[in-house]
Amino acid sequence: MGNIQKRGLLRGATAFMLTTATITGAGLLHWSASQASFQESPKEVIDEVWQIINRTYVDGTFNKTNWQAVRSEYLGRNYDNRQQAYKAIREMLKKLGDPYTRFMDPEEFKDMQIQTSGELSGVGLELGKQEKTGQLIVANPIEGSPAFKAGIQPKDIVIKIDGKSTKGMDIQDAVKLIRGESGTKVLLTILRGSKEIDYPLVRSKIEIHPVRFHVQDTPNGSIGYIRLIQFSAQAGDEMRNAIQRLEQQNVKGYVLDLRSDPGGLLYAAVDIARQWLNEGTIVSTVERRGEKERYRANNRALTEKPLVILVDGGSASASEILSGALQDNRRAKLIGTKTFGKGLVQSVRSLADGSGMAVTIAKYLTPSGRDINKRGIEPDVVIELTDAERKELQGNRDKIGTLSDPQLVKSLEILKPEIERQKTSSLQR
After folding, report:
1. In the chain, which end has fewer C-beta atoms inside a 10 angstrom radius, N or C?
2. CATH number where 291 lies
3. Of 68-77, 154-163, 179-188, 386-395, which gets the smallest average pLDDT?
4. Structural domain that includes position 203
């Protein structure tokens, strides 16, 4: 398959780009609605954005910018249309020097809402872009989706969308052509080997399952492997179901895989932490006026069996909250490489004209008081993949979380004495 340069989920209404750029933009999110009343003047939305920053932005110095002067500057200009106003907003927000505080036009905002909901409309393709050729390659058809049912396979090359060549096409442009309302049709032309195949597909609603799990048999007994790909609205319930089902199979311990998980919703991170942790602080958030909220465990852990967590440089935001909480409370050991280092919380605001924005309203601290922003979390046991191992897993994703995955193998080694220790402790009671 070659080295995948970019990956995106083509689900009709959105493209979730799994790249460093998106991880940088991935937020730990609160949702709230703006109460402003939009008037026809493009200046109204500019002032609305300015007011939100003025009231809620985490840095009261606004990156050492005279924020009042910024308002005068941008409201003093003339704007012929909304697009000019949107460009001005993005320019204004750049002064904060914060990649996480960002403006979204109505289409981008709608995409973000759908992405975090976990319920999308499309054909169910996860697409990659091959680095050498630039071709759009199917990384994975989502199980049960129209693409999956039609027989589209991993490593298929998408060469046309409704007859239009994809040569030189960016993933975002492909998304605009593939996405659409449930019940509408799209024709994908696939190259498989030397054979071209047309796939007429009917778009439908697709549930994206953020949790995948299985039982891994080892010489030390069965281990529950759980992979979490995103902290979406469904993540907490799906994690609960996974743990309960694995407990029924009497696994001896767990591996929780958070590699390349860019984060998501704050409440999902807290909910999942409580499923593993009986007591202790999970995370605290600190806004510009001081500590805002402290989240704690509530004696509702679903299991006390040994746990290790796999992390890497793509584990960001909510992934780091969960990792930090379980590491600081000595509930789990972290295996892999240093996490991304995003310790900021964004509030997502809807604006009166249908656009939206994410604004950094707080930073978060792990239970021990660590501010991991731009620093990341160091694992307890460092194990890096070689370039060859990384390419092998990228090209054969079904090997992730199996005994062909070197980091998983190491995590099983770490679990072994923990399982023995718990077994001995139980016998002595």
Report:
1. C
2. 3.90.226.10
3. 386-395
4. 4-19+119-207
